[in-house]
Deoxyribodipyrimidine photo-lyase
Amino acid sequence: TLQLVWLRSDLRVHDNTALSQAAARGPVVAVVAPCLAQWVEHGHGANKLDFLRRGLHVLQQALAGYHIPLKVLDCDTFAEVPEALAALCDQLGAQALHFNDEYAVNERERDRRVRERLTESDVRLHRYTDMLAFTPGELLTGKGDYYGVFTPFSKRWHKEVDSRRLALNEAPQVQATPRDAQGREIHGDAIPPLPETLKGEPATALDAELWPAGEEAAQERLERFLTFRARRYHEQRDIPATRGTSELSPYLALGMISARQCYAAVLAENGSLADGDVGLTSWVNELIWREFYQHILVGFPRVNRHRPFQRHTEALQWRDDDAGFVAWCEGRTGYPIVDAAMRQLVQTGWMHNRLRMVTAMFLTKHLLIDWRRGEAFFMTHLVDGELGANNGGWQWAASTGTDAAPYFRIFNPTTQGQRFDKDGEFIASMVPELAELPAKRRHQPSADDCQQTGYPRPIVDHKAARQRALDTFKALSKSE
Ligand code: FAD
Protein backbone atom coordinates (compact mmCIF):
# COMPACT_ATOMS: atom_id res chain seq x y z
CA THR A 1 0.00 0.00 0.00
CA LEU A 2 0.92 3.61 -0.53
CA GLN A 3 3.41 5.05 1.97
CA LEU A 4 3.42 8.77 2.72
CA VAL A 5 6.73 10.32 3.86
CA TRP A 6 6.59 13.72 5.52
CA LEU A 7 9.91 15.53 5.04
CA ARG A 8 10.77 18.29 7.52
CA SER A 9 14.33 19.14 8.50
CA ASP A 10 15.61 16.20 6.47
CA LEU A 11 15.41 17.54 2.93
CA ARG A 12 17.42 14.85 1.19
CA VAL A 13 16.96 11.60 -0.67
CA HIS A 14 20.09 9.81 0.48
CA ASP A 15 20.53 8.38 3.94
CA ASN A 16 17.05 9.41 4.99
CA THR A 17 15.68 6.90 7.50
CA ALA A 18 11.98 7.66 7.00
CA LEU A 19 12.23 7.67 3.23
CA SER A 20 14.29 4.53 3.12
CA GLN A 21 12.01 2.63 5.50
CA ALA A 22 8.88 3.76 3.66
CA ALA A 23 10.32 2.76 0.29
CA ALA A 24 11.05 -0.71 1.62
CA ARG A 25 7.32 -1.13 2.33
CA GLY A 26 5.65 0.07 -0.85
CA PRO A 27 5.20 2.92 -3.34
CA VAL A 28 6.10 6.29 -1.84
CA VAL A 29 4.67 9.79 -2.02
CA ALA A 30 6.56 12.58 -0.21
CA VAL A 31 4.94 15.59 1.39
CA VAL A 32 6.18 18.85 2.92
CA ALA A 33 4.31 21.43 4.98
CA PRO A 34 6.23 24.70 4.56
CA CYS A 35 4.30 26.58 7.33
CA LEU A 36 6.06 29.82 6.49
CA ALA A 37 4.04 31.92 8.95
CA GLN A 38 5.08 29.56 11.74
CA TRP A 39 8.72 29.85 10.73
CA VAL A 40 8.45 33.61 10.80
CA GLU A 41 6.90 33.36 14.24
CA HIS A 42 9.88 31.25 15.27
CA GLY A 43 12.04 34.17 14.26
CA HIS A 44 13.45 32.99 10.92
CA GLY A 45 14.01 35.59 8.25
CA ALA A 46 14.17 35.73 4.47
CA ASN A 47 17.62 34.14 4.22
CA LYS A 48 16.57 30.89 5.81
CA LEU A 49 13.10 30.81 4.23
CA ASP A 50 14.59 31.35 0.80
CA PHE A 51 17.18 28.64 1.40
CA LEU A 52 14.32 26.34 2.41
CA ARG A 53 12.32 27.26 -0.70
CA ARG A 54 15.26 26.62 -2.98
CA GLY A 55 15.97 23.40 -1.13
CA LEU A 56 12.42 22.22 -1.77
CA HIS A 57 12.79 22.81 -5.51
CA VAL A 58 16.01 20.80 -5.62
CA LEU A 59 14.43 18.07 -3.50
CA GLN A 60 11.40 17.88 -5.75
CA GLN A 61 13.63 17.37 -8.77
CA ALA A 62 15.76 14.79 -7.02
CA LEU A 63 12.67 12.86 -5.90
CA ALA A 64 11.26 13.01 -9.44
CA GLY A 65 14.27 10.95 -10.52
CA TYR A 66 12.80 8.13 -8.43
CA HIS A 67 9.22 8.88 -9.56
CA ILE A 68 8.41 10.06 -6.04
CA PRO A 69 6.00 13.00 -6.29
CA LEU A 70 6.40 15.80 -3.71
CA LYS A 71 3.07 17.09 -2.44
CA VAL A 72 2.97 20.47 -0.68
CA LEU A 73 0.44 21.08 2.08
CA ASP A 74 -1.14 24.50 1.99
CA CYS A 75 -0.51 25.26 5.67
CA ASP A 76 0.73 28.47 7.23
CA THR A 77 1.02 27.21 10.78
CA PHE A 78 1.67 23.95 12.60
CA ALA A 79 -1.91 23.97 13.90
CA GLU A 80 -3.21 23.35 10.38
CA VAL A 81 -0.95 20.39 9.69
CA PRO A 82 -2.82 17.48 11.37
CA GLU A 83 -6.01 18.09 9.42
CA ALA A 84 -4.18 18.70 6.15
CA LEU A 85 -2.18 15.49 6.51
CA ALA A 86 -5.29 13.50 7.35
CA ALA A 87 -7.02 14.92 4.27
CA LEU A 88 -4.05 14.06 2.07
CA CYS A 89 -3.89 10.49 3.37
CA ASP A 90 -7.57 10.19 2.64
CA GLN A 91 -7.28 11.66 -0.84
CA LEU A 92 -4.35 9.41 -1.79
CA GLY A 93 -5.53 6.31 0.00
CA ALA A 94 -2.34 6.22 2.09
CA GLN A 95 -2.52 4.15 5.25
CA ALA A 96 0.94 4.84 6.61
CA LEU A 97 2.80 8.06 7.38
CA HIS A 98 6.55 8.08 8.04
CA PHE A 99 8.66 10.89 9.45
CA ASN A 100 11.94 11.58 11.21
CA ASP A 101 11.61 13.18 14.63
CA GLU A 102 12.35 16.82 15.46
CA TYR A 103 12.98 17.98 19.01
CA ALA A 104 11.94 21.58 19.67
CA VAL A 105 8.75 21.81 21.77
CA ASN A 106 6.46 23.30 19.14
CA GLU A 107 7.52 20.66 16.65
CA ARG A 108 6.93 17.91 19.17
CA GLU A 109 3.53 19.30 20.05
CA ARG A 110 2.64 19.46 16.34
CA ASP A 111 3.69 15.82 15.95
CA ARG A 112 1.67 14.78 18.98
CA ARG A 113 -1.42 16.32 17.39
CA VAL A 114 -0.65 14.67 14.08
CA ARG A 115 -0.47 11.33 15.85
CA GLU A 116 -3.82 11.91 17.53
CA ARG A 117 -5.49 13.00 14.33
CA LEU A 118 -4.14 10.17 12.20
CA THR A 119 -5.02 7.58 14.79
CA GLU A 120 -8.63 8.68 14.32
CA SER A 121 -8.25 7.98 10.60
CA ASP A 122 -6.52 4.64 11.12
CA VAL A 123 -3.35 5.82 9.43
CA ARG A 124 -0.31 4.09 10.90
CA LEU A 125 2.46 6.35 12.07
CA HIS A 126 6.14 5.37 11.74
CA ARG A 127 8.61 7.68 13.48
CA TYR A 128 12.38 7.47 13.39
CA THR A 129 15.43 8.89 15.09
CA ASP A 130 17.41 10.23 12.19
CA MET A 131 18.80 13.66 13.00
CA LEU A 132 20.81 12.33 15.94
CA ALA A 133 22.79 9.22 16.77
CA PHE A 134 20.84 8.82 20.03
CA THR A 135 17.20 9.51 20.76
CA PRO A 136 16.99 12.12 23.52
CA GLY A 137 16.47 10.18 26.74
CA GLU A 138 18.79 7.37 25.66
CA LEU A 139 21.86 9.03 27.13
CA LEU A 140 21.25 9.96 30.76
CA THR A 141 23.49 10.51 33.77
CA GLY A 142 23.84 7.89 36.52
CA LYS A 143 20.98 9.67 38.32
CA GLY A 144 18.73 9.35 35.30
CA ASP A 145 18.90 13.02 34.34
CA TYR A 146 19.68 14.60 31.02
CA TYR A 147 23.27 15.76 30.78
CA GLY A 148 23.53 19.48 31.39
CA VAL A 149 27.27 19.61 30.69
CA PHE A 150 28.88 18.81 27.37
CA THR A 151 32.05 16.86 28.23
CA PRO A 152 30.42 13.93 30.06
CA PHE A 153 27.75 13.85 27.37
CA SER A 154 30.32 13.59 24.61
CA LYS A 155 32.33 10.93 26.46
CA ARG A 156 29.20 8.88 26.85
CA TRP A 157 28.28 9.49 23.22
CA HIS A 158 31.63 8.12 22.08
CA LYS A 159 31.37 5.18 24.45
CA GLU A 160 27.92 4.10 23.30
CA VAL A 161 28.01 4.88 19.61
CA ASP A 162 28.36 1.87 17.36
CA SER A 163 28.29 0.98 13.70
CA ARG A 164 24.58 0.14 13.80
CA ARG A 165 23.72 3.70 14.80
CA LEU A 166 25.97 5.17 12.18
CA ALA A 167 24.96 2.87 9.31
CA LEU A 168 23.77 4.80 6.27
CA ASN A 169 20.29 4.14 4.93
CA GLU A 170 19.78 2.91 1.41
CA ALA A 171 18.44 5.30 -1.17
CA PRO A 172 15.01 4.31 -2.52
CA GLN A 173 14.77 2.33 -5.79
CA VAL A 174 13.24 4.00 -8.81
CA GLN A 175 9.55 3.12 -8.55
CA ALA A 176 6.61 3.18 -10.94
CA THR A 177 4.69 6.46 -10.69
CA PRO A 178 2.37 5.92 -7.69
CA ARG A 179 -1.40 5.99 -8.10
CA ASP A 180 -4.17 7.01 -5.75
CA ALA A 181 -7.06 4.83 -4.60
CA GLN A 182 -8.94 5.61 -7.84
CA GLY A 183 -5.99 4.50 -9.93
CA ARG A 184 -4.99 8.02 -11.03
CA GLU A 185 -1.28 8.92 -11.24
CA ILE A 186 -0.17 11.15 -8.36
CA HIS A 187 1.72 14.30 -9.27
CA GLY A 188 3.67 16.80 -7.21
CA ASP A 189 2.51 20.31 -6.26
CA ALA A 190 4.03 23.74 -6.83
CA ILE A 191 6.49 25.01 -4.19
CA PRO A 192 5.23 28.30 -2.69
CA PRO A 193 7.25 31.46 -3.34
CA LEU A 194 8.89 33.45 -0.57
CA PRO A 195 6.25 35.75 0.99
CA GLU A 196 6.58 39.34 -0.17
CA THR A 197 6.87 40.70 3.31
CA LEU A 198 7.99 39.30 6.64
CA LYS A 199 6.87 41.13 9.78
CA GLY A 200 5.88 44.01 7.52
CA GLU A 201 9.35 44.30 5.96
CA PRO A 202 10.08 43.37 2.34
CA ALA A 203 11.40 39.79 2.31
CA THR A 204 14.71 40.09 0.55
CA ALA A 205 17.05 37.17 0.68
CA LEU A 206 20.74 37.03 -0.09
CA ASP A 207 22.14 36.18 -3.48
CA ALA A 208 21.25 32.49 -3.97
CA GLU A 209 24.76 31.68 -5.15
CA LEU A 210 26.19 32.27 -1.70
CA TRP A 211 24.35 29.22 -0.37
CA PRO A 212 23.40 26.87 -3.18
CA ALA A 213 20.67 24.61 -1.81
CA GLY A 214 20.32 20.85 -1.88
CA GLU A 215 22.15 17.68 -1.06
CA GLU A 216 24.47 17.74 -4.04
CA ALA A 217 25.77 21.16 -2.99
CA ALA A 218 26.16 19.86 0.57
CA GLN A 219 28.12 16.80 -0.57
CA GLU A 220 30.43 19.01 -2.62
CA ARG A 221 31.09 21.15 0.44
CA LEU A 222 31.82 18.11 2.56
CA GLU A 223 34.19 16.78 -0.09
CA ARG A 224 36.03 20.11 -0.35
CA PHE A 225 36.29 20.40 3.40
CA LEU A 226 37.68 16.89 3.76
CA THR A 227 40.16 17.34 0.94
CA PHE A 228 41.52 20.76 1.80
CA ARG A 229 40.70 21.74 5.37
CA ALA A 230 39.65 18.95 7.71
CA ARG A 231 43.12 17.82 8.74
CA ARG A 232 44.01 21.34 9.81
CA TYR A 233 40.63 22.06 11.34
CA HIS A 234 41.92 22.17 14.92
CA GLU A 235 44.48 24.86 13.98
CA GLN A 236 42.35 26.88 11.61
CA ARG A 237 38.85 26.66 13.01
CA ASP A 238 39.31 29.85 15.02
CA ILE A 239 40.73 31.99 12.22
CA PRO A 240 37.88 33.73 10.43
CA ALA A 241 40.03 34.96 7.54
CA THR A 242 41.01 31.43 6.44
CA ARG A 243 37.61 29.72 6.11
CA GLY A 244 38.94 26.71 8.00
CA THR A 245 35.54 25.21 8.87
CA SER A 246 33.10 23.18 6.79
CA GLU A 247 30.36 25.83 6.34
CA LEU A 248 27.90 22.95 6.39
CA SER A 249 25.66 24.34 9.15
CA PRO A 250 22.80 25.52 6.89
CA TYR A 251 22.75 22.09 5.23
CA LEU A 252 22.79 20.23 8.54
CA ALA A 253 20.05 22.47 9.94
CA LEU A 254 17.65 21.57 7.11
CA GLY A 255 18.96 18.06 6.70
CA MET A 256 20.31 18.54 3.19
CA ILE A 257 23.15 16.44 4.54
CA SER A 258 22.88 14.00 7.45
CA ALA A 259 25.19 13.96 10.43
CA ARG A 260 25.68 10.23 9.70
CA GLN A 261 27.08 11.11 6.29
CA CYS A 262 29.56 13.42 8.05
CA TYR A 263 30.52 10.72 10.56
CA ALA A 264 30.83 8.15 7.76
CA ALA A 265 33.15 10.46 5.85
CA VAL A 266 35.36 10.85 8.93
CA LEU A 267 35.37 7.09 9.50
CA ALA A 268 36.35 6.49 5.88
CA GLU A 269 39.31 8.87 6.25
CA ASN A 270 40.34 8.12 9.79
CA GLY A 271 38.86 4.77 10.87
CA SER A 272 37.71 6.30 14.18
CA LEU A 273 35.61 9.19 15.43
CA ALA A 274 37.55 9.56 18.67
CA ASP A 275 41.21 8.78 17.93
CA GLY A 276 43.63 9.47 15.15
CA ASP A 277 43.77 12.67 13.14
CA VAL A 278 43.27 15.64 15.47
CA GLY A 279 41.63 17.79 12.83
CA LEU A 280 38.99 15.21 12.00
CA THR A 281 38.28 14.26 15.61
CA SER A 282 37.94 17.92 16.65
CA TRP A 283 35.41 18.34 13.89
CA VAL A 284 33.44 15.35 15.20
CA ASN A 285 33.44 17.07 18.59
CA GLU A 286 31.56 20.02 17.05
CA LEU A 287 29.04 17.67 15.46
CA ILE A 288 28.45 16.24 18.93
CA TRP A 289 27.77 19.76 20.26
CA ARG A 290 25.00 19.90 17.70
CA GLU A 291 23.56 16.66 19.08
CA PHE A 292 24.00 17.83 22.68
CA TYR A 293 21.88 20.94 22.16
CA GLN A 294 19.07 18.87 20.63
CA HIS A 295 19.04 16.67 23.73
CA ILE A 296 18.95 19.85 25.86
CA LEU A 297 15.81 21.01 24.03
CA VAL A 298 14.05 17.86 25.17
CA GLY A 299 15.59 17.52 28.62
CA PHE A 300 15.16 21.18 29.63
CA PRO A 301 12.04 22.40 27.79
CA ARG A 302 12.26 25.88 29.35
CA VAL A 303 15.07 26.81 26.95
CA ASN A 304 12.61 26.38 24.07
CA ARG A 305 10.66 29.22 25.64
CA HIS A 306 13.80 31.36 25.79
CA ARG A 307 14.10 30.96 29.54
CA PRO A 308 17.59 30.63 30.96
CA PHE A 309 18.98 27.17 31.54
CA GLN A 310 20.35 28.39 34.88
CA ARG A 311 17.24 29.56 36.62
CA HIS A 312 18.90 31.99 39.04
CA THR A 313 20.02 34.15 36.10
CA GLU A 314 16.35 34.90 35.43
CA ALA A 315 16.77 37.84 37.84
CA LEU A 316 19.63 39.51 35.93
CA GLN A 317 19.18 43.22 35.42
CA TRP A 318 19.75 43.63 31.69
CA ARG A 319 20.07 47.15 30.34
CA ASP A 320 17.61 48.77 27.94
CA ASP A 321 20.05 50.33 25.54
CA ASP A 322 18.39 50.69 22.18
CA ALA A 323 21.15 52.84 20.74
CA GLY A 324 23.77 50.29 21.79
CA PHE A 325 21.70 47.46 20.36
CA VAL A 326 21.31 49.20 17.01
CA ALA A 327 25.04 49.98 16.85
CA TRP A 328 25.76 46.29 17.51
CA CYS A 329 23.27 45.13 14.85
CA GLU A 330 24.71 47.51 12.30
CA GLY A 331 28.36 46.78 13.02
CA ARG A 332 29.12 50.26 14.38
CA THR A 333 30.32 49.58 17.93
CA GLY A 334 33.81 50.94 17.32
CA TYR A 335 35.28 47.50 18.13
CA PRO A 336 36.56 46.37 14.73
CA ILE A 337 36.33 42.59 15.18
CA VAL A 338 32.78 42.89 16.54
CA ASP A 339 31.75 45.15 13.68
CA ALA A 340 33.41 42.98 11.04
CA ALA A 341 31.56 39.96 12.43
CA MET A 342 28.16 41.65 12.53
CA ARG A 343 28.61 42.84 8.97
CA GLN A 344 29.53 39.29 7.95
CA LEU A 345 26.25 38.08 9.47
CA VAL A 346 24.14 40.65 7.68
CA GLN A 347 25.97 40.35 4.35
CA THR A 348 26.30 36.56 4.17
CA GLY A 349 23.66 35.05 6.49
CA TRP A 350 26.40 33.23 8.39
CA MET A 351 29.01 34.10 10.98
CA HIS A 352 32.18 32.30 11.94
CA ASN A 353 31.87 30.42 15.26
CA ARG A 354 34.65 32.32 17.05
CA LEU A 355 32.95 35.55 16.09
CA ARG A 356 29.52 34.36 17.19
CA MET A 357 31.10 33.93 20.61
CA VAL A 358 32.83 37.33 20.51
CA THR A 359 29.79 39.28 19.34
CA ALA A 360 27.38 37.48 21.67
CA MET A 361 29.65 38.13 24.61
CA PHE A 362 30.07 41.78 23.63
CA LEU A 363 26.30 42.29 23.54
CA THR A 364 25.61 40.48 26.80
CA LYS A 365 28.61 41.62 28.81
CA HIS A 366 29.94 44.92 27.42
CA LEU A 367 26.52 46.29 26.60
CA LEU A 368 24.74 44.16 29.22
CA ILE A 369 21.82 43.73 26.82
CA ASP A 370 19.49 40.75 27.22
CA TRP A 371 20.80 37.73 25.27
CA ARG A 372 17.31 37.12 23.90
CA ARG A 373 17.54 40.28 21.78
CA GLY A 374 20.77 39.03 20.26
CA GLU A 375 19.43 35.53 19.82
CA ALA A 376 16.46 36.91 17.88
CA PHE A 377 18.64 39.16 15.71
CA PHE A 378 20.88 36.22 14.81
CA MET A 379 17.86 34.10 13.99
CA THR A 380 16.44 36.59 11.51
CA HIS A 381 19.71 36.69 9.57
CA LEU A 382 21.22 33.22 9.86
CA VAL A 383 20.82 30.78 7.00
CA ASP A 384 21.69 28.08 9.53
CA GLY A 385 19.42 29.51 12.27
CA GLU A 386 18.35 26.64 14.49
CA LEU A 387 16.84 26.88 17.97
CA GLY A 388 19.05 24.33 19.76
CA ALA A 389 22.44 25.65 18.67
CA ASN A 390 21.46 29.32 18.57
CA ASN A 391 19.88 29.32 22.00
CA GLY A 392 22.71 27.17 23.35
CA GLY A 393 25.36 29.49 21.93
CA TRP A 394 23.67 32.61 23.25
CA GLN A 395 23.14 31.22 26.71
CA TRP A 396 26.75 30.07 26.75
CA ALA A 397 27.94 33.60 25.98
CA ALA A 398 25.54 35.20 28.45
CA SER A 399 26.65 32.82 31.24
CA THR A 400 23.07 31.67 31.71
CA GLY A 401 23.33 28.32 29.96
CA THR A 402 24.73 24.80 30.02
CA ASP A 403 28.50 24.78 30.29
CA ALA A 404 28.23 28.54 30.27
CA ALA A 405 31.29 30.73 30.17
CA PRO A 406 31.88 31.77 33.82
CA TYR A 407 30.60 35.32 34.06
CA PHE A 408 33.97 36.74 35.07
CA ARG A 409 35.73 35.41 31.96
CA ILE A 410 34.84 38.26 29.65
CA PHE A 411 36.51 38.33 26.24
CA ASN A 412 38.39 41.50 25.49
CA PRO A 413 37.20 42.18 21.95
CA THR A 414 40.40 43.94 20.95
CA THR A 415 42.71 41.13 22.04
CA GLN A 416 40.33 38.54 20.51
CA GLY A 417 40.78 40.37 17.22
CA GLN A 418 44.56 40.56 17.61
CA ARG A 419 44.75 36.89 18.45
CA PHE A 420 42.43 35.36 15.86
CA ASP A 421 42.74 37.92 13.07
CA LYS A 422 46.40 38.68 13.52
CA ASP A 423 46.94 40.65 10.34
CA GLY A 424 43.54 42.29 10.47
CA GLU A 425 42.70 40.56 7.20
CA PHE A 426 39.17 39.65 8.18
CA ILE A 427 38.55 43.14 9.53
CA ALA A 428 39.79 44.65 6.28
CA SER A 429 37.51 42.38 4.25
CA MET A 430 34.37 43.42 6.16
CA VAL A 431 35.11 46.96 7.36
CA PRO A 432 36.39 48.78 4.28
CA GLU A 433 36.85 52.01 6.32
CA LEU A 434 39.78 50.32 8.08
CA ALA A 435 41.27 48.41 5.14
CA GLU A 436 43.84 51.08 4.30
CA LEU A 437 45.23 51.29 7.82
CA PRO A 438 48.34 49.30 8.71
CA ALA A 439 47.35 45.86 10.05
CA LYS A 440 48.12 46.72 13.69
CA ARG A 441 45.94 49.81 13.77
CA ARG A 442 42.96 47.97 12.28
CA HIS A 443 42.36 46.46 15.71
CA GLN A 444 42.47 49.75 17.55
CA PRO A 445 42.08 52.73 15.23
CA SER A 446 43.13 56.01 16.82
CA ALA A 447 40.81 59.00 17.20
CA ASP A 448 42.48 60.49 14.10
CA ASP A 449 41.96 57.28 12.15
CA CYS A 450 38.29 57.35 13.06
CA GLN A 451 37.92 60.96 12.10
CA GLN A 452 39.55 60.39 8.73
CA THR A 453 37.78 57.15 7.85
CA GLY A 454 34.35 57.79 9.37
CA TYR A 455 34.72 54.65 11.51
CA PRO A 456 33.02 55.12 14.94
CA ARG A 457 34.84 55.56 18.24
CA PRO A 458 34.17 52.70 20.73
CA ILE A 459 30.65 53.01 22.14
CA VAL A 460 31.81 51.66 25.51
CA ASP A 461 35.11 51.58 27.32
CA HIS A 462 36.22 47.96 27.69
CA LYS A 463 37.43 48.26 31.29
CA ALA A 464 34.43 50.14 32.58
CA ALA A 465 31.97 47.91 30.72
CA ARG A 466 33.69 44.81 32.01
CA GLN A 467 33.46 46.09 35.56
CA ARG A 468 29.77 46.93 35.14
CA ALA A 469 29.08 43.37 33.96
CA LEU A 470 31.07 41.88 36.83
CA ASP A 471 29.18 43.99 39.36
CA THR A 472 25.82 43.06 37.87
CA PHE A 473 26.57 39.34 37.87
CA LYS A 474 28.03 39.50 41.38
CA ALA A 475 24.92 41.25 42.68
CA LEU A 476 22.92 38.42 41.17
CA SER A 477 24.72 35.65 43.00
CA LYS A 478 24.39 37.59 46.28
CA SER A 479 20.67 38.03 45.82
CA GLU A 480 20.09 34.30 45.28
P1 FAD B 1 32.03 23.46 11.60
O1 FAD B 1 33.07 24.02 12.48
O2 FAD B 1 32.45 22.88 10.32
O3 FAD B 1 31.23 22.37 12.47
C1 FAD B 1 30.48 21.31 11.85
C2 FAD B 1 29.04 21.34 12.32
O4 FAD B 1 28.96 21.11 13.71
C3 FAD B 1 28.34 22.67 12.10
O5 FAD B 1 27.90 22.80 10.77
C4 FAD B 1 27.21 22.60 13.11
O6 FAD B 1 26.13 21.83 12.63
C5 FAD B 1 27.86 21.84 14.25
N1 FAD B 1 28.39 22.78 15.25
C6 FAD B 1 29.59 23.38 15.26
N2 FAD B 1 29.75 24.13 16.36
C7 FAD B 1 28.61 24.00 17.07
C8 FAD B 1 28.16 24.53 18.30
N3 FAD B 1 28.91 25.34 19.05
N4 FAD B 1 26.91 24.21 18.71
C9 FAD B 1 26.12 23.38 17.98
N5 FAD B 1 26.51 22.85 16.82
C10 FAD B 1 27.73 23.15 16.36
N6 FAD B 1 24.95 26.74 14.81
C11 FAD B 1 23.90 26.46 14.03
O7 FAD B 1 23.92 25.46 13.29
N7 FAD B 1 22.79 27.26 14.04
C12 FAD B 1 22.70 28.37 14.83
O8 FAD B 1 21.67 29.04 14.82
C13 FAD B 1 23.82 28.70 15.65
N8 FAD B 1 23.82 29.83 16.41
C14 FAD B 1 24.91 30.10 17.23
C15 FAD B 1 24.88 31.23 18.06
C16 FAD B 1 25.95 31.52 18.90
C17 FAD B 1 25.91 32.73 19.79
C18 FAD B 1 27.07 30.66 18.92
C19 FAD B 1 28.24 30.94 19.82
C20 FAD B 1 27.11 29.54 18.10
C21 FAD B 1 26.04 29.24 17.24
N9 FAD B 1 26.05 28.12 16.39
C22 FAD B 1 24.96 27.84 15.61
C23 FAD B 1 27.17 27.16 16.45
C24 FAD B 1 28.31 27.41 15.46
O9 FAD B 1 28.73 28.73 15.52
C25 FAD B 1 27.93 27.06 14.01
O10 FAD B 1 27.35 25.79 13.95
C26 FAD B 1 29.17 27.07 13.11
O11 FAD B 1 29.79 28.32 13.14
C27 FAD B 1 28.78 26.70 11.71
O12 FAD B 1 29.88 26.74 10.86
P2 FAD B 1 30.43 25.42 10.17
O13 FAD B 1 29.32 24.69 9.52
O14 FAD B 1 31.57 25.83 9.31
O15 FAD B 1 30.92 24.59 11.42
The CA atoms of residues 366 and 468 lie 8 Å apart.
